[in-house]
């Protein structure tokens, strides 16, 4: 990540997209590096875009395509790789024989659990620097913004 990307802009001039992107990218890098350190050397940040959208009961490919905002070809490519590595499993959809349901395997669930722990550790570090009350306010504000966006959709 380039640290001087927005140096020409004052903090007040940075657009919200940049202010949201910077911590998101930092968190993504931390998750990917942490998972590699915890025994998942084949895991890449792009896999997070798929895994984070797989429901506990499984997800259809078409739903993953929409949720991850990726093309069907890109999702298929990532799912194939994740299946080869043992993170996901495709199962025939009982309600539609043509469709497949993507499920996390035990390894996929372990990876998800480890990613959640990395996120919690990172949030705790950020709270130490920002202060607990500011971190709680940030979370509350983002929760409200997410609810507004989801309601409008």
Automatic annotation (TrEMBL):
Residues 12-147 form the HTH marR-type domain. GO terms for molecular function: DNA binding; DNA-binding transcription factor activity. GO terms for biological process: response to stress. It comes from the Bacteria. Keywords: DNA-binding, Transcription, Transcription regulation. SUPFAM superfamilies: Winged helix' DNA-binding domain. Pfam families: MarR_2. PROSITE patterns: HTH_MARR_1, HTH_MARR_2. InterPro entries: HTH_MarR-typ, MarR/SlyA-like, Tscrpt_reg_MarR-type_CS, WH-like_DNA-bd_sf, WH_DNA-bd_sf. This is MarR family transcriptional regulator. It comes from Tengunoibacter tsumagoiensis.
